[in-house]
Design goal:
Blueprint lengths: L1 E7 L16 E3 L10 H7 L2 E8 L1 H6 L2
Parallel strand pairs: 1-3
Antiparallel strand pairs: 2-3
Amino acid sequence: MKVMMIFDQTQAGLGGKESPDLPMGGKAMGIGSCEMFTRFLDQQGGKVIATLYCGDGTFLADP
């Protein structure tokens, strides 16, 4: 199973409340909070293949 995570700036590890205008971006790997899911995904035969992220404010301005 291939998994793509979608995070805000905090969960992606790219800032906190001070960076709500972080533009949308992505990485072809797990970043930020992905480590929390590793053990569960391993048990299910899954792997995080990408992470998308953007700031809360960026999302609210253009959902």
